[in-house]
What does this fold into?
Amino acid sequence: MIDCHVHCRDEEQAEKETIGHALRVAEDSGLDAIFDMPNTARPVITRQRVLERFALAEAANSRVFYGIYVGVTANSEQIKEAIETWREFFPRPGVRVGVIGLKMFAGKSVGDLAIVEPEAQEFVYETLSGLNYDGVLAVHCEKESEMRPELWDSSKPWTHSEARPEKAEIESIRDQINFAINTVYKGHLHILHVSTPKSVDIVRSYRGDMRISCGVTPHHLLLNKTAMYGERGVLYKVNPPLRDQETMRGLFSALLDGRIDVLESDHAPHTYEEKTQQYMSGIPNLASWPDFIKILQRLGMHQGLIDRMTFNRVNEIFGVQIPALGDCVLIDHTGDYAFDPYIHLKSKKK
It folds into this structure.
């Protein structure tokens, strides 16, 4: 299995997560590779910063492949360096680290890499096209002009869904597709962590016209915003937010129908204090993979589709050949169909 959406921390944020710990958890969970999207205090947007991350991964001496995205800004020279770094370190057989693509935050989330203005986002696509980039651009899609931050009430955590409505995601996805078409973007557009069936349908409708895919997380498939009604509700604050039960079920139907390309954890740990006092968005999902796969099997997803969405399709999208370690052991913590990523918090010691 390949988890193509993991947020490792290290450095100034090592108390949240480290590359070494994430690789150990990934190996224990039966993963063959993780792809790191650093939204760190110091952005990973240069060749030097990539080399620093590689050093941390290599020091872990893990069998699990460590891939990394380079973040992009609206600066043409930075984008050029990012592409050159991707070309230099694109994964090669026998190498356990590599740059697997570029990442853009089309909206504010965690970190300072958001490119908010539509004109600046389109400039990124123009620059990528002009430099003949044909790799993956993974995009966090939430449109700032469609958000309603005034509706967020920390005493009612479920209002996060209203503050960041489905329309913000949907309109951002439409923007990215239009930008890619208008600039004749030559690469592959991967829409991260879709949270609504409408997003899936939009991506699917363009598959014949461009290279495009989407991923979905365990929490958007198995949790809905009622999880935020309880005493620990704020712990389930994520971007994009958990949706209502009907939307969650529609997303799961799209999964079983094969309309979604990949499963991705969006593993994004924060400290308990950050979650409960600063209301940071993110869930520690990496250790939940064995439970998640068990639940999918119980709910009727056949193994061939699971393999495609967690391994084969990821290799296809990114144009890589990550080898399978072949020794995944599924440990069932769930009892029934319950899904709670926080069951694994005890295992987060560094």
Observations:
- The radius of gyration is 19 Å.
- Confidence is low (pLDDT under 50) at residues 328-337, 344-350.
- The CA atoms of residues 262 and 313 lie 7 Å apart.
- Residues 2-348 form a domain with the TIM Barrel fold (CATH 3.20.20.140).
